[in-house]
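Annotated sample (chain length 414).
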Amino acid sequence: MDRYATKHGEVYCEDLPLRALAQQYGTPLYVYSAGTLADHFQRLDRALAPVAHTICYAVKANSNLAVLRTFAELGAGFDIVSAGELHRVLKAGGDPARIVFAGVGKTAEEIAFALRHNILFFTIESEEELLRINAIAAAHDTVARFCIRVNPDVDAHTHHYITTGKSENKFGLPFTAARALYLAAKNLRHARAVGVQMHIGSQITTTAPFVAAITLLAAFVNELRAAGVALEYVDVGGGMGIIYHDETPPTADEFAAAVVPVLRTLPAHVLFEPGRFMVGNAGVLVTQVQYLKTTASKRFVIVDAGMNDLIRPALYEAYHAILPAVPRAGAAQVVDVVGPICESGDFLGLARALPPLEPGDYLVVRSAGAYGFAMASNYNTRPRAAEVMVQGDQARVVRRRETIDDLLAAELGL
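Output written by the structure step:
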């Protein structure tokens, strides 16, 4: 559910027409619905009420400070993968005691920074990482809390770039290796095991992979307890899918109905790390038509947003629904919606049936709140888009549009 709808013949975000926002703030433009962010968090929080839990928003999906502050004010924790993300969460008012630090390549500087802020725990990906964290904690005269990320070898049935729970993926440890590391860690003076973690992938549209992986994880937790490893937390990761096209992902209630019965068997505090589920359908990318081009075999709609603004179609061949902000009357035509970047892979949508369009019209690219601006770049020396947050009939810029001067400011040597 989101708060985008067609009213009075044009597409609105909450109580504001997207055409008016584009005219005021320019394009390309990311627009976020504050009401949708809050609604998604609260629905999942209510659905998971039968188990003691914390929802740790996955910052990598959308790290805008206004988005982070929205979740912090709702009581969210945060799942981070870099010191930069930790800086962002702290600036947005996030509680360090509700922050978990994941990722396979944490540097010594990042570990030290997180220890100084006393985060909840580190997610450990290897024995070498655990030994490094123990040594850095010793140098800071503290004890680092950690969970080991286990790899349950469960197929999430998603794009191979965003599956993370198979044995061939770089993430986590198999159960046997993880068990040995938990037992060995008892001898470490400056690192203490407080839980176990997993994350099997992203954009998962059925509950079966979650149930299978959590069932394996529950058995592993019981095995560890029998071996004398006391765990306070079970972190089941994120990965809940959203609707981009014709998917039928589980709702918050359906997800909870599937996983809560297994989780209730565990006397532990459960952490969830949703990202896309929280922000994906809360955001859109608005772009303006520049040219219409017809060749012998194709009709192209050339817009001012490119793969540097939204890379998912080029990177994953991902589908994003595209519709006119103000539809014109007339028969639909099949077109490719492409950007200005000098790459054949620069497209937002291929073979889309759209109403008649003219230069100057605005198109709305749906479901762009997750991994949209967060993955944007300055390729072709293109400034990144502005971001706007809408709440009811009010809009505010939450990131100004970059300028060419911004792009050149860090360059030296002339």
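Annotation: Residues 158-167 have pLDDT under 50 and may be disordered.
Annotation: Residues 160 and 258 are 24 Å apart (CA to CA).
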